[in-house]
Known about the structure:
Shape: elongated
Strand content: 15-25%
Distance between the termini: 99 Å
Number of helices: 20
Helix content: 25-40%
Number of strands: 19
Structural class: alpha/beta
Strand order of the largest sheet: 6-7-8-2-9-10-1-11
Largest sheet: 8 strands, mixed
Amino acid sequence: MVKLHKCGLDPQQIRQFVKELAARGEESLKLFRPQEHQERIFSSTASELLVRGGNRSGKSICVAAEIASAATRTALVDHNGNRIPFKYPPSDRPMTIWMIGYGEKHIGQTFHRLLFQPGLFEIIRDEVTGQWRAYQPWRDYQRRSERKPSPPLIPKRMIESWGWKNKAIRHFEVCRLTNGTELYSYTSIGEPKMGDPVDLIWIDEAIKFPKHYSEWQARISDRKGRIIWSMWPGRVNSAVINLHIRAKKQKGKSAPDVEEVQIAFSHNQFIDDEEKRKRLEGWSPDEVRSRDYGEFVRGNSQVYPTFSRAVHETPCENQELDDDADKALRSNGFVPPPDWSRFLILDPGHSHPGCLFAAVPPPRLGNCGVIYDELYLPNSDAKEIAQACLPKMFGTSFQTFIIDFHAGRQTPMGFSMTVAEQYASQFDQAGLFSSNTGSRFQWSSDDVDAGIDMVRLRLRPVKGKRPWLRVVARSCPNFLQQIELYEKTQDGRGFVMDKPAPRQVDCLCDCLRYWVQSDPKWQPPDKPIRAKSAAWIAFHEHWKEKDTSPTSITLGFSERNG
């Protein structure tokens, strides 16, 4: 106290100074302690982090603490009190942080509550040191009357100004801190904010449009920022499933770019054991997987929930399960033998065109259909697709070419031919023909609902037998990803509708539907029609430009002409 007087402080200033010190000692970020199984959330340095967990598992609280730590430049400590390395920019550069929720209520009821309101957890004075710390029910239960709500994660002293959209429901557009950091809130319902570089993006729970995730990814590149997505997977979408798949591929790396941390409701020490027991006993097995462990239970949201690599991949991982068709594929290097009927199925377009190559074996090998190869070439035209098909079709006989009815009959602006006619012309010039349709195409059915039902029937395993539809997984990575991410649409309340969601990349799923709806049957293959070579095509194109009919051409050069 004497020293403070010597610094020129009067008693009133001293009291305020002591009060401020005490308040800072009680600030939530200094008292927050993650549970041991949650610590990977805070030690991860991945540029994209998925925090997936059950209800009341603590996922949103943990991510809120990480966001507040970054915004206030306050390092956190682990459950043993050891400092967790701080991974964000130094204090000489203000940060830009975005927080994205499903709607306006999410901003006020979740983001504002977690970051700026007291009571995120409870605190109590330590029985030995007398200092405030987090309340721990497993050791402090007898002293529970002494606990009190924790202060806000971001203290009021650090808030410089608010930009309110609707203060009554705590819907803020921006919160500016005294250190220059700005926290912006957005909903995923509207168009994504574009153009600005961002240091840190927090996505909490579901988003309306999965395609917006790629725009948010682009925002963090300039500053080598991060995206952290906390969610209970009750309303999954293609963006989060794709993030999960990418994290799974990088699992085991010392410094992954994409990482996933999964935490469970039943592991939360702050929830009473008796209450956990009640919830777990009252939930169905699927609800336990989802609400306790945060597992993806997507049956209700997937268009084809029965599809499984373990069931539909051919040949089988376990050779003992191979039937005659699987054995024939295995013995022929995972491509259909010459006596199988082959089909090319095309979903045209420029942005996301796709082709599936499918086959049906002769009846002696059983009743099944196999997807054995694919083409997925975004931003490609008819000529590029035809050229890409050449090496996949050379020396083989195809029974039928099939094309999307709706897209194929359209005539693009500035063209005199329909889309189907353009592809037929390019296939003809490339020397690509089928027995039944020549270089032209058979129309697909335009009954989407009936087609999806037919595919579901073909996917269904028959008791004691392999399912009708098989996929050569090693040759069809894009098809596998599309069918696993193929989801139904949801309304604004999250109710799942029985039709495919719009704006997802599903061209190869459409090809599957066109093929199954054609009711493919085996017929004896014709002798392969020899495709025209690349040299022949170049020769043909060269003389077509000169509008003459050559009788010969010199390939290579002689000493005389150099």
